[in-house]
Amino acid sequence: MAMNKNSVLAWATTIMIIVGIALICLGAFRYDDVAGYGFASVGIGFFAIAWVFNALKGRV
Predict the structure, then answer these.
(1) 23 CB contacts (<8 Å, ≥6 apart)?
(2) Could you give the CA distance from residue 5 to residue 2 in angstroms, rounded to a whole number?
(3) DSSP single-letter state for residue 28
(4) How far apart are CA 4 and CA 39, in angstroms?
(5) CA of 51: how far to CAs of 12, 20, 42, in Å?
(6) Are residues 1 and 38 in contact, defined by beta-carbon separation less than 8 angstroms?
(7) What is the chain's alpha carbon radius of gyration, rounded to the nearest angstrom?
(8) Cα(52)–Cα(18) distance, rounded to whole angstroms?
(9) Dist CA 2 CA 51 (whole Å)
(10) Distance CA 28, CA 21 (A)
(11) Quick one: residue 38, left, alpha or beta (phi over 0 = left, psi -120 to 50 = alpha)?
């Protein structure tokens, strides 16, 4: 299974979305204090980076 640059970016995007969802769920359901806001904001940051990876597919 040969992986080119686009498939690597697709896998990276998928993994970043999964980790982002996990962090947002941790912030929403596990931590009820200020730490929950931190987890949720980092999860949103993971979504932003995954969006950039998705935009780079086909251009790199």
Answers:
(1) 39, 40, 42, 43, 46
(2) 10
(3) I
(4) 32
(5) 10, 11, 14
(6) no
(7) 14
(8) 15
(9) 24
(10) 10
(11) alpha
- Each residue of 26-50: pLDDT tens digit? 999 988 888 899 999 999 999 999 9
pLDDT digits (tens, 9 = 90+) for 16-29: 999 999 999 999 99
Q: What 3-state class would DSSP assign to 29? A: helix
| Alpha-carbon gap, residue 6 to 58, rounded angstroms | 6
Reported pTM: 0.84
Position 32 scores a pLDDT of 82
Band the pLDDT of 58: cuts 50, 70, 90: confident
The two three-digit tokens of residue 39, written as one number: 């987890």
CA 21 from chain centre, in angstroms, equals: 7
